[in-house]
Amino acid sequence: RKEVEQDPGPFNVPEGATVAFNCTYSNSASQSFFWYRQDCRKEPKLLMSVYSSGNEDGRFTAQLNRASQYISLLIRDSKLSDSATYLCVVNRPQAGTALIFGKGTTLSVSS
Amino acid sequence: NAGVTQTPKFQVLKTGQSMTLQCAQDMNHEYMSWYRQDPGMGLRLIHYSVGAGITDQGEVPNGYNVSRSTTEDFPLRLLSAAPSQTSVYFCASSYRLASSYEQYFGPGTRLTVT
Question: Across-strand partners of A109?
Answer without folding.
Answer: A13
